[in-house]
Amino acid sequence: MITSNILQNRIINFWGYGSLESPVWLVGMEEGFRSTDIVADRRMLEKQFSLPTINGMFDARRPIDPNYSDLTNLSPFSPNAGPQPQSTWKFPIMLYLFLRDGKYPSEDKILDFQRFVLADGKKNEMATLELSPLPSPNISSWLFTDIAGFETRKSYEHTHQKQRSKGLRDLVQKYSSTLKLVIFYSANKKTHLPIWAEAIGKVSDKLTEITHQMYFEKINKTSFCIIPQNHHGSMTPARLYEYAEKIKDKITTF
């Protein structure tokens, strides 16, 4: 049974998958999942909220622990994931692979990176974090209406988002000596950009826009990219690579 205490613990203690020691982080707004029905979703989330973590991260090293391999949230890390890359992570991974290798990655290479490298704490190449730690099938769904203090998405965000924003900023500062690249994916000017700017240590209207809705900053040895999320096919490889070509010489060698 999911209780208020379980949700509070998740908010305080969970950040994502992989290791915070990884030199590259992908940072999104909220973890999604494929919905079945309310009862099945709540049962799955109850198990999801029991994942063991170290410093707020579940190490998705391969093969995935069989005790948790049935969780839909972990299915993108399966060797059978696909046949296409997970849509949310496709373009951030594509950007990273281009910056790392200096050439355009194929769809298969993006998918293989997702299957075998992403969030694997042993390989320790890339972690994935979420600002909002309570998963949801989509922005219009909310599965916790019966839990005191979490009756609506709006009340949840109003109560906890500032705390999480500060926590993200603190993590960026804490791991700045090992953190080479952060890719924020979501660039809504009203809701997301101010949070990413705070994490970087900037004011949102002072961020450097490289191409439309895509920003870049570098603080000491850490590079920060902000790109839009791929809503309904709004992102394209051509759009991403136009941006990538303009920032590639600013990135510290991996």
Any overview of this molecule?
There is one protein chain. This protein has helices spanning 4-13, 38-48, 87-101, 107-116, 153-174, 193-200, 237-247; strands at 16-17, 24-30, 57-58, 126-132, 181-185, 209-211, 214-219, 222-227. With 254 residues, it is of the alpha/beta class. It has a single domain (4-250), classed as Uracil-DNA Glycosylase, subunit E (3-Layer(aba) Sandwich), CATH 3.40.470. The chain has an eight-stranded mixed β-sheet, sandwiched between helices. Strand 7 and strand 8 form a beta hairpin. Helix 3 crosses helix 4, helix 3 runs parallel beside helix 7 and helix 5 runs parallel beside helix 6 (193-200). The radius of gyration is 17 Å and the shape is globular. The mean pLDDT is 92.
Return the CATH architecture. 3-Layer(aba) Sandwich
Total number of beta strands: 8
Low-confidence parts lasting 5 or more residues at pLDDT below 50? none
Number of helices: 7
* Beta-strand residue percentage: 5-15%
CATH topology, by name, is Uracil-DNA Glycosylase, subunit E
Approximate helicity band? 25-40%
Termini separation: 44 Å
Order of strands in the sheet with the most strands?
3-1-4-2-5-8-7-6
Quick one: overall form? globular
* Total number of domains: 1
* Average of per-residue pLDDT values: 92
What are the secondary-structure elements, in order, as H or E?
A: HEEHEHHEHEHEEEH
Largest sheet: 8 strands, mixed
Given helix and strand content, the structural type is alpha/beta
Rg, Cα atoms, Å: 17 Å
